[in-house]
């Protein structure tokens, strides 16, 4: 049986269920559709969907689409694709905008209860009257407006009578509160902007804190899990839930019932956990957007991007990401995780799951002179050294092979185990080769190695047991397919590219060597693999057939990760 996971949130959920506070746990993942999901989101996804799964509850996908200016249907679709790729299934798909009419009625309710007022101060005037951490703010001159006047003005805001920014609806809480979020925060603002879901139906939009709290309440979310920066907003969250009080005002839900949308209004509890940060990475959507728009990467799915689209194209598996997140666990302490930890998790996952193939990235011709030119043969190779169930494959072999240039040294450094002039090396699965001749062109470049294959040294033969220091990989020149290999590395050279204290921007820390393309060969079998197939190219690294550009006739493989950590600081 899988071991039961524990962390402070799961403990709360477990207690709540044990004490009968909820019939079932209900969570939601609430992305704002203003960009693509990134690695940081995986923690929120894994927490919300994971907890729902573990406790036999459910998790909604809810777009927090209260800021129409920045939102786009492109992101709405991509978020669903990413969640599906991660293997999560949402219970209901909702939008905060599905609740605009309920949120509106809730606001009128607050006005009637004397808990909200229409304020005519400009944004600047509001800022100036908010006070500071040590000084209380001052009440708006509009704070004591009567209910009827407030209702009239709010309805006219809704009718589109006033220009952007001319008025807001504000909660009437406490301008002297030590928590700035409680100093009569805005609940609604005027914005004559088309919305990706509701079109031009609304000239006013609810503020995030209000919309989020009430949306959670509408959906009957039991545990509203979010990141630490919302900790200070929790009192406002609770204020909105308690004062709109859907459980006492079921009439507010009528617009939903009329549309046949089920709802289980309840009192959600917000719990915060720390954000995931990775070194050598920027994770804010705003910065990722800038990288794309400034052409510093090829797009949201550039394999160097920490977006799910990028990381998927890079060759990461959903399982590796989930394992990475699960191992880190949940805490209330913000910290930055070593990029190496992520890469090691990927190596571990790919080692177990990928079949082995041979690929040569920097080809050097090797001719076996004691085999005829028309020699054609196929050799049998295990697809995985530790997993028999992955079976075997046939690999073409002839007298002309490609080997990697770096497996030959005319003047070997100390400790060299690979091929040298006159030396012997084992050709993976084919036997022991002795290099007799090094052929050079006019400019002195080595263009070909020639030599003999010991006919008694085939795998399984007695002669194969001779002690030979090195084994190298190869591909058969007659059948191998010319291939483009894209070699990726970290996008930034600085451990903390976000640090701008030295006046530098993350743009100044871009790694100039984060992408390199080389041309070589793969064995024919790998060329024919479907896009997104992952392999370990023996001795070279883990690669994935590019999701967009790979074709059997023109293979393109992205390096997901090297076999070992080679990052130099
Ligand atoms: P960004 O700052 O990158 O724009 P965001 O928090 O504004 O991120 P949302 O779309 O609002 O992005 O995020 C959806 C959910 O994912 C929220 O609950 C948010 O707290 C969570 N989330 C976002 N980034 C991280 C992160 N780095 N680690 C953990 N959770 C995150
Ligand atoms: Mg957000
Ligand atoms: Mg954001």
Automatic annotation (TrEMBL):
Alphabetical list of NCBIfam families matching this protein: glnS (TIGR00440), PRK14703.1 (NF011291)
High-level lineage: Bacteria, Pseudomonadati, Pseudomonadota, Gammaproteobacteria, Lysobacterales
SUPFAM superfamilies assigned to the protein according to its UniProt record, in alphabetical order: Nucleotidylyl transferase, Ribosomal protein L25-like
Native source species: Solilutibacter silvestris
Motif ('HIGH' region): 31-41
Protein keywords: Aminoacyl-tRNA synthetase, ATP-binding, Cytoplasm, Ligase, Nucleotide-binding, Protein biosynthesis
The UniProt record lists the keyword Nucleotide-binding: yes
Compartments where located: Cytoplasm
Protein's UniProt name: Glutamine--tRNA ligase
């Amino acid at each position: 049986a899988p071991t039961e996971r524990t962390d402070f949130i799961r403990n709360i959920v477990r207690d709540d269920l044990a004490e009968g506070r909820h019939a079932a746990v209900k969570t939601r993942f609430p992305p704002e559709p203003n960009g693509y999901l990134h690695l940081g989101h995986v923690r929120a996804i894994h927490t919300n969907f994971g907890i729902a799964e573990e406790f036999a509850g459910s998790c909604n996908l809810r777009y927090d689409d209260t800021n129409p200016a920045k939102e786009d249907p492109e992101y709405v679709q991509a978020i669903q694709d990413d969640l599906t790729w991660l293997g999560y299934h949402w219970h209901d798909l909702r939008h905060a905008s599905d609740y605009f009419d309920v949120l509106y009625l809730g606001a009128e309710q607050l006005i009637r209860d004397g808990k909200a007022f229409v304020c005519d101060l400009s944004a600047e005037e509001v800022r100036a009257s908010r006070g500071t951490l040590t000084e209380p703010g001052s009440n708006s001159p509009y704070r004591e407006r009567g209910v009827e006047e407030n209702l009239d003005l709010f309805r006219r805001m809704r009718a589109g009578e006033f220009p952007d920014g001319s008025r807001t609806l504000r909660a009437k809480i406490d301008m002297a509160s030590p928590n700035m979020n409680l100093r009569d925060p805005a609940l609604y603002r005027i914005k004559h902007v088309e919305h990706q879901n509701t079109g031009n139906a609304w000239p006013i939009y609810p503020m995030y804190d209000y919309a989020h709290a009430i949306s959670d309440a509408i959906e009957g979310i039991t545990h509203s899990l979010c990141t630490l920066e919302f900790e200070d907003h929790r009192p406002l969250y609770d204020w909105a839930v308690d004062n709109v009080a859907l459980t006492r005002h079921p009439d507010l839900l009528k617009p939903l019932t009329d549309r046949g949308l089920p709802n289980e209004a309840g009192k959600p509890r917000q719990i915060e956990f720390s954000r995931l940060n990775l070194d050598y990475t920027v994770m804010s959507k705003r910065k990722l957007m800038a990288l794309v728009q400034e052409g510093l990467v090829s797009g949201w799915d550039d394999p160097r991007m920490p977006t799910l689209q990028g990381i998927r194209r890079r060759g990461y598996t959903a399982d590796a990401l989930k394992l990475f997140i699960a191992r880190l666990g949940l805490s209330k302490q913000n910290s930055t995780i070593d990029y190496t930890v992520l890469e090691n998790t990927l190596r571990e996952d790919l080692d177990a799951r990928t079949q082995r193939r041979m690929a040569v990235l920097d080809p050097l011709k090797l001719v076996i002179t004691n085999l005829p030119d028309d020699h054609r043969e196929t050799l049998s190779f295990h697809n995985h050294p530790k997993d028999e169930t992955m079976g075997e494959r046939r690999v073409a072999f002839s007298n002309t092979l490609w080997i990697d240039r770096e497996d030959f040294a005319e003047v070997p450094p100390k400790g060299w185990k690979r091929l040298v002039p006159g030396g012997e090396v084992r050709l993976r699965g084919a036997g022991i080769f002795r290099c007799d001749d090094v052929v050079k062109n006019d400019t002195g470049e080595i263009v070909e190695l020639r030599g003999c294959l010991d006919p008694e040294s085939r795998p399984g033969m007695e002669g194969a047991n001779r002690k030979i220091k090195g084994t190298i990989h190869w591909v058969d020149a007659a059948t191998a397919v010319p291939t483009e290999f894209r070699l990726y590395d970290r996008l930034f050279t600085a451990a903390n590219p976000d640090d701008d204290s030295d006046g530098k921007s993350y743009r100044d820390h871009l790694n100039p060597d984060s992408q390199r393309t080389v041309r070589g060969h793969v064995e024919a079998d790998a060329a024919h693999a479907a896009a997104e197939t992952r392999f370990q190219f023996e001795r070279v690294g883990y690669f994935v057939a590019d999701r967009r550009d790979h074709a059997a006739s023109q293979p393109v493989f992205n390096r997901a990760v090297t076999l070992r950590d080679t990052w130099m600081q």
